[in-house]
Amino acid sequence: MAAYSILFIAIGRSQVATETLFQSTGTEQPLYLFAEVTAVNAARGTVQIKVSFANDRGERGTRFSGIPDRDLLIDVSDGDTERRTLYRAGEPMPALDFAADADGSIETYPVDLYKTVLYVRAYEGQKPGASHMIPLNLTVSESLDDWDASVVERAEANGMRLTLRLHRSSPIVFFGIVVYLAMALIAAASLTIGTLVFMRRRRLEATFTGALAGMLFALPAMRAALPGAPPLGVAADVLIFLWAEIAVAAGLGLFVWRWARGESPS
User: Are strands 96-101 and 57-58 parallel, antiparallel or unpaired?
Assistant: First the structure.
């Protein structure tokens, strides 16, 4: 119970959504933005970010449905792909969904790490120009349950540059490691049963046939149940899952070989 309590406190606590505020310098009226990381597709190497805009601040906080009193040109980029959107004065500013490229590899699942860079610039008018740059008031939300994110800002002369670092949350990492260890344990158990029966160290019992066959089909089901299950072939599959399947099949084969020879139990 003590070990369980310590483990729960360490990794079982619910994640609280956090918000980080970044501000760029300038004397003009700032543009208020709210950027939320909505999804991470590790297999494709993308981070989905929803950016909402407002042109003013309400009595009870920043409003993200404000209507601009001037034409605004917004540039959002990850360094490779740029999204430029024009908002006209007097018209609503719908939220912008942006898929940013993430540097990292799912090969190291479940301890894989990713990094993405987000550039945000705002101009007054319909054409970009340094003389029309608008200061930004950007709030970044980190609210994903299965991912932890940290945001770092680097000052930019023209706008704002944010670096997002993402990794899987502690419960996801713990669960993934435990499942792979369970696969290795099942493989060891199957190989032990088959070897001992084959060497006549244990009695030949028919009930073990169903158990060993169940182990063979249980491993792929456990692999598919992994949270955020990666494509087949990551490093953990090569190190554990593949060899676990071979070990279970070998244990079943040794057991059936002894049974097929029709020898009486020793």
Answer: unpaired
The domain spans of the chain are: 16-168, 172-260
Let me know: does 219 contact 237? Beta carbons within 8 Å.
Answer: no
Burial label, 6 (beta-carbon count in 10 A; 0-12, 13-18, 19+): exposed
Span 152-185, pLDDT tens digits: 877 666 678 899 999 998 889 989 999 999 999 9
What tokens were used for 205? 């019992």
Question: Which pairing describes strands 136-142 and 113-124: parallel, antiparallel, or unpaired?
Answer: unpaired
The residue among 44, 49, 29 whose CA lies nearest residue 124 is: 29
Which position has the token pair 């912008």? 96
∠ CA 41-175-165 to the nearest 5 degrees? Answer: 40
Q: For residue 223, what pLDDT is reported?
A: 94
Band of pLDDT at residue 15, cut at 50, 70 and 90: low
